[in-house]
Design a protein that fits this description.
With 174 residues, this protein is of the alpha+beta class. The protein has helices at residues 2-40, 68-71, 122-127, 139-143, 166-169; strands at 42-46, 61-65, 79-85, 88-96, 102-105, 108-111, 114-116, 137-138, 152-156, 172-173. The strands form 3 sheets. A 4-stranded antiparallel β-sheet has the order 3-4-9-10. A 4-stranded antiparallel β-sheet has the order 7-6-5-8. The longest helix is centred in the first third of the chain and has 39 residues, at 2-40. It is elongated and about 90 Å long.
């Protein structure tokens, strides 16, 4: 009887040890999978600043898709995150694509000579009493070229008066 009890205790210990090992393996796989997804596909980001208001507010939290532009190109008016400096990321809206001629006149966006509506700016435009939301400019006065260079995009914040964007730093490499 004692031998049978010892055998059963050994059996139970072996089962518990196997169960613990299975849990450890499952947790290790979950952590590895989360790290791969976080590093290659998605990243959490917290908005820091007012340059994208009223669309995004400071301290808003977002998940950034890191993968989509590896298989496709940005579209006009997409909101993108890019490395402005080694330690600073900017969140801006894509205004001009490679080959586009971009200019602002009378608070209206013109791309390749065609006026574009920007409904996301209406809230700020309606509040203004002291001039345009977007100061007039053409691409050539900013980057010395008449079109957005191949492999680059022209980006702007929605809060044009409070945004450091392509109208200040030039085009951004895709």
């Amino acid at each position: 009887n004692v031998l049978i009890m010892i055998a059963r205790v050994g059996e139970i210990m072996t089962k518990k040890k196997n169960e613990v090992l299975e849990w450890i393996k499952a947790l290790a796989i979950a952590v590895l999978l989360a790290a791969v997804i976080r590093y290659f596909f998605f990243a959490p980001i917290v908005v820091d600043g007012y340059s994208m208001m009223p669309t995004l507010h400071t301290q808003d939290r977002m998940i950034v898709n890191k993968f989509s532009y590896k298989i496709g190109e940005p579209n006009r008016f997409d909101i993108v995150v890019f490395h402005a400096t080694v330690d600073k990321d900017y969140i801006k809206r894509v205004i001009g694509l490679p080959g586009d001629h971009v200019e602002y006149e009378n608070d209206t966006l013109y791309i390749n000579g065609e006026a574009f509506e920007e409904p996301y700016l209406e809230e700020y435009k309606n509040q203004l009493i002291d001039g345009p939301l977007t100061e007039p400019f053409d691409l050539e006065s900013i980057i010395g070229q008449s079109t957005v260079p191949e492999g680059h995009i022209f980006v702007m914040g929605d809060n044009r008066r409070q945004s450091k964007d392509s109208s200040h730093i030039g085009t951004v490499p895709i």
